Fold this protein.
Amino acid sequence: MREKFIKSTLILMIGGFLTKILGMIIKIVMTRYIGTEGIGLYMLILPTFSLFIALAQAGFPIALSKLIAEDSRNNKKLFFSLIPLSLIINLILMIFIILIAKPLAINLLHDKRCILAIYAIALVIPFTTLSNMCRSYFYGKQKMFPHVLSNITEDIARLLLMIIGIPFFLQKGLEYAVCYVVLINVISELISILILFFFLPRNVKIQKNDLFPSKIYIKDSLDISIPNTASRLIGSIGYFFEPIILTSSLLYVGYSNQYIVSEYGIISGYVLPILLLPSFFTLAISQALLPTVSKLYYKKNIKEVKRKIKQAIFFSLLIGIPTTICFVISPTIFLKTIYHTTEGANYMTFLAPICLLQYIQAPLSFSLDAIGKSKDNMKASLYGTLARTFFLFSLSFLKIGIWSLIISTSINICIITFYNIQKINKYLK
């Protein structure tokens, strides 16, 4: 068990490192092509994208990983029990997105150039859902290499498609280029799914009985997925309303739309991606932690569960503390090297120490999922989101500009992290 956990963590760390580098290259390429205005436009629709991805997945990937890790069910039947339900949810959401695209872009995001990109989201979500469902099978089996390879291949495909397609669509208009950036996910997710299928066991035979959904398996999955979805949904709804509240409030107190789009793009497109760079390590640790802790907790080995969680937090801080110091001391070096700009350096200096708490959020959150306490993740997300929304709205009227977003984000991180620490300590006494 110990060797498997370490091996899984190392594979995910190496894969996460490569994926993060590719992600940064993708971000650089996108920034160079579509500029600050394009990044700002993309960041306006990104919360909407995240919200519908959370809804479309319905928490099934986490439920699937946990139940497969327990190794007490027919995994083929479990997988095929969830696929039909997942497809129905995705179809309903696709229709809904198409219906709300125009009013959402014009009345809430205050930029009609977002309409095409929102339409594109409807086409992307089923592919993203299926891809994550396939990955969750390998997570549960603690087979991390297929997931890593599919992620790397997916990012390479996305990078190449950006380089080839963005210049062409820019000639038609910035909104077409942003729409194309969203649509790229269809092809990249398809490639990811194909890679994962190559790693499925060759000797597995799918019988007719496996294809019929099991009510018991669906119920077991929903017991995990509903609070998990609610947790992600609460966070995504808060993230969805973030640019809407920010834009409406700052416009009301006298800030220009150009200032809002530009500064929001700097924070969401430049500052936060750099600050969250170490998160690929903590996410790798957390993803390896989920099946391990699930199996140990199922066997009532609480002592080993506590040890694994402490290890995950220790390694997360071991990586997070040095990077935080670097971000505080020399923020302009990172911004200049990656994005050829120094805009946002003051934001980085303020947010870097707060993000140290963000680095340990993933191990805590995944641990709560693993021990069957997803409802507490939901509560943490609810309290954090309500606080962020309240302070974002309130502080915007103090005429402190984009700092209302930075302060409210910091409060959200602190609330969620400390709440999760308190719950983990309570359940594993």
